[in-house]
């Protein structure tokens, strides 16, 4: 049995491990050169497995026929056929517009963490981490460990709401509470401002300071970086490309076996709904088992239920509140690819009209940033992904060489060139 897995984050890695354990041949495709996804980025080691092939630095951009995908690689376009497929495409950050959010030095919360993990030096630089949710603590701890001075963590939710969240963690997810306590200990001494909202970022050629509102008073903090995170949005484009049912444009729909609405296609991890790394791992394991012909046991389904419970708690506790809409002023740029302000967008009734009249969503991000922002700001449902689902070169679209037949085992795929075997110690 040949299984193609798209995405080498925790979900994809656990799916690969489960499927290999069940005797399947596995090909794992990942747009980054390394494995690990958002959370284990650059921290996973490579090992060899005779039935596993890894295609790194390859992004799926479109379909080429009924059961074949088009990949963009540094060496040009490649096609890849599949028999059984598991989508593990993860999530991206929800970026909400506020004055100054396009200044150099302002990033998403996870975005700054990714840059730091990728080697960007921040030693001695002052960082404000703002937004809402537990990711803020993880990001602040990462940048502090890299030598930055965290000037403040700015949490939109108030003390009472955070206490309720901690109480629910203590009752049902003690290990998570322990992780949060460890991060809080590492960040002791860093001002943790609760019930505070971003008013704006100011600077000249780059960010110089951030203004916050707490109650009725505003306060400004000088800083070099602002990492602003308001939650995550599932990456549904690959599911949509394959024709899978997507719930309200928000998540790939799966059944209890992680099976999508399309024959021989499963999905796992944040692309089926936001819930954290444990959810991704539990769902990945179940998808890998089911795609390779086995049934999940009580251990797997129990782990998934606990992880789903945690995901629901996260959503209840940290979903962006309506008050955050006030961050976006009429002159604030919402579509940063095409420089479209909020004032221009609010003249239109829906996303389609706004797009036709202003070009919002027609830049390189294809609405991945402003589409989610407009959904939050104006309640407009973002449009379905168009092919190619990511920007691709004309050469990729015009002609693509096939990878070796994936019905061969992993080793034969090595002859295709940019293919390596791998396996992170932590999960394989
Ligand atoms: C920027 C960011 C930082 C985060 N940091 C943390 C953290 O520090 N701690 C924490 O607990 N959680 C963090 N999270 C949450 C994190 O998403 C999950 O906990 C976990 O990584 C999810 O695993 P996953 O396998 O579902 O998705 P991911 O880890 O997102 O893995 C999905 C993989 O699919 C690949 N992919 C997607 N589309 C394509 C395509 N078209 N072609 C080829 N490859 C593709 C991506 O490159 C990615 O490697 C972060 C999320 C984001 C967005």
Automatic annotation (TrEMBL):
Pfam families (alphabetical): Pyr_redox_2
Residue ranges occupied by any FAD/NAD(P)-binding domain in the UniProt entry: 2-283
InterPro entries: BFD-like_2Fe2S-bd_dom_sf, FAD/NAD-bd_sf, FAD/NAD-binding_dom, Metab_Enz_Cyan_OpOx_G3PDH, Opine_Oxase_asu/HCN_bsu
GO molecular function, one term: oxidoreductase activity
Top-level taxon in the UniProt lineage: Bacteria
Keywords assigned: Oxidoreductase
Record-given protein name: FAD-dependent oxidoreductase
Phylogenetic placement of the source organism: Bacteria, Pseudomonadati, Pseudomonadota, Betaproteobacteria, Burkholderiales
């Amino acid at each position: 049995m040949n299984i193609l897995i798209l995405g080498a984050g925790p979900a994809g890695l656990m799916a690969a491990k489960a499927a290999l354990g069940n005797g399947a041949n596995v090909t794992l495709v990942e747009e980054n050169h390394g494995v690990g996804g958002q959370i284990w980025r650059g921290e996973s080691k490579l090992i060899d497995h005779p039935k596993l092939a890894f295609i790194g630095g390859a992004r799926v951009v479109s379909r080429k026929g009924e059961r074949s995908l088009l990949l963009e690689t540094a060496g040009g376009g490649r096609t890849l056929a599949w028999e059984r497929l598991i989508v593990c495409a993860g999530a991206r950050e929800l970026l909400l517009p506020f004055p100054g959010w396009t200044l150099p030095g302002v990033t998403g919360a996870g975005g700054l963490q990714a840059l730091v993990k990728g080697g960007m030096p921040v030693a001695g630089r002052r960082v404000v981490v703002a937004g809402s949710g537990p990711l803020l603590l993880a990001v602040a701890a990462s940048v502090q460990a890299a030598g930055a001075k965290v000037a403040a963590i700015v949490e939109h939710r108030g003390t009472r709401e955070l206490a309720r969240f901690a109480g629910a963690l203590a009752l049902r997810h003690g290990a998570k509470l322990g992780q949060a306590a460890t991060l809080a200990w590492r960040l002791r001494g860093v001002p943790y401002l609760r019930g505070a909202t971003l008013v704006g970022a100011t600077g000249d050629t780059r960010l110089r300071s951030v203004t916050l509102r707490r109650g009725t008073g505003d306060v400004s903090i000088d800083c070099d970086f602002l990492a602003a995170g308001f939650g995550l949005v599932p990456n549904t484009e690959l599911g949509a490309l394959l024709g899978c049912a997507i719930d309200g444009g928000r998540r790939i729909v799966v059944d209890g076996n992680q099976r999508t609405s399309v024959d021989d296609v499963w999905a796992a991890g944040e692309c089926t709904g936001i819930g954290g790394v444990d959810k991704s791992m539990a769902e990945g394991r179940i998808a890998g088992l089911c795609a390779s012909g086995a049934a999940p046991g009580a251990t797997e389904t129990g782990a998934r239920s606990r992880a789903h419970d945690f995901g629901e708690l996260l959503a209840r506790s940290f979903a962006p509140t309506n008050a955050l809409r006030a961050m976006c002023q009429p002159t604030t740029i919402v579509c940063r690819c095409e420089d479209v302000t909020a004032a221009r967008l609010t003249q239109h009734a829906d996303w389609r009209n706004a797009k036709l009249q202003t070009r919002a969503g027609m830049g390189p991000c294809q609405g991945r940033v402003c589409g989610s922002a407009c959904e939050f700001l104006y309640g407009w449902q973002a449009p379905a992904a168009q092919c190619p689902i990511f920007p691709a070169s004309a050469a990729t679209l015009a002609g693509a060489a096939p990878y070796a037949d994936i019905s061969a085992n992993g080793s034969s795929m090595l002859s295709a060139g940019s293919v390596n075997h791998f396996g992170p110690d932590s999960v394989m």
